[in-house]
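job 3f2a | input accepted
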Amino acid sequence: MAITEQERQRRSEQARRMHREGKLGNAAAARNGAARSAEVRSARASSIARRLLEEHEDEVRKTLMDVLAKGSRSEKLKAVDLMVKAGLRGESVGLAEQRIEGEQRSREELIAAIMMKLQAPTPAAAIMRAELGTRGVVVDGTATEITP
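job 3f2a | predicted structure (148 res):
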């Protein structure tokens, strides 16, 4: 298929523009390839680490407890730091899973979930109820439509 001189010129100008914007050429290809390979490496490393921890869970627990009982002050601090970071990482994964679950819920299910959390006997829920109470809002499991 032969292209006209005008079409060739249009394509040439478009390629130059995309190259200037970094969307075409070696830099863009390298950026996209590096991002994809970094994601793959990260996922592979995470799955390997998770599998190793699962296989040696008892040994890891015993070692951490031994360090906490008999280790030097700096070793104890490092062990505690490791446990706290692992716990926080686990929480962030849990929150991400909850967010994904929330995106797949119906409106009624989301209202019910929010109501349960606001009525829970936790300090955070009590603070939220108190703040909503100062605004005249009662947590009753209903939602009103907000129109723009």
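job 3f2a | The two ends are 52 Å apart (CA to CA).
job 3f2a | closed
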